[in-house]
């Protein structure tokens, strides 16, 4: 994975490709960003309903109205301002997004160092072999932009172009200047490592640590396994609603971090955080959800709380959508495995967060008013509206009494770079609230 690719990882995109020889190839299939053909937008009680309430389709993707009755009530802040430190609940910010001063290097502030190493699938147990999807040259995600879903299930994408392959990734480890060699340090695991979205992370940590607004922490950027979405290694890692990625990090990455960067990482879950963008954003939450004994603090930009899980899992047909909402398909029960046999779950289709006891997770996240909306035209499943999925997450988190802060962002697209530069320092400070600072 190159760093230029990782900037785009998490967003379903395509480009028009032409051969440089005598003739041109057909144009790539681009993002849909509109109601997919054949979608159900009229029968709310019918399967796979897509609710278009409050959407302005004059933009692509459509712009969402924060007063949409489907969204939780939120406090609208004056343009250019952010919630007070430590504030919880739902807020509306924008439309202006200037970078926070803490994202700019300052004279006299001690600077951390970054050490890097690579990891390949040949060295992995959990993700060996990896996944490779055969897309047309120059046409990102082409094979899933033209595929089909199962005849009786619009949430079940059929991907025939995915096969075993080899991946290699870079891992960058930021070590603050204040780290005392041999001591155990708090840390944050960052998915989609190398993304341009994180270009201010080291400077921001330098400044916040010097100001004693966050503890001196190790930041571990882990590159993804390559490509994007269904049938890819990145999608396999991030969109699966399981503990596999957390185990990959715990068993295969963190020991190498300690060895290569000469640091000791805390085993205290209150001193461990996760962060990500888009699909790595939902992976950050999934790590803490399945292993609250390992992680308590989560930060995510435009997390993919939608149905991207692949291969299709009959026990959780809606993937990450089922964190906050029931599967949108025909009203049949979800299935669970009992003694190796798929058995109807009780109660049927109850969302994961709603069904489980409240976990010790502190969660900060944002979604843009022009975030992704059904980017793939072949999957009209009622579970691919990123803005709605984030709003529904905020609803269930509030109902269950979680400590969270959700920002609905005006004038912001998917993984909006100006919004990240505006909010990263305050988000880090909010996520680490309550942790002792020496």
Automatic annotation (TrEMBL):
From the UniProt entry, list the residue stretches annotated as the region Disordered. 52-81
**Signal sequence, start to end:** 1-22
Q: Which UniProt keywords apply?
A: Signal
Task: Spell out the InterPro entries in the cross-references.
Answer: AB_hydrolase_fold, Esterase-like, Mycobacterial_A85_antigen
Q: Name one Pfam family in it.
A: Esterase
Task: Please list the coiled coil stretches.
Answer: none
Identification of the protein by name: Esterase
Species whose genome carries this gene: Bradyrhizobium canariense
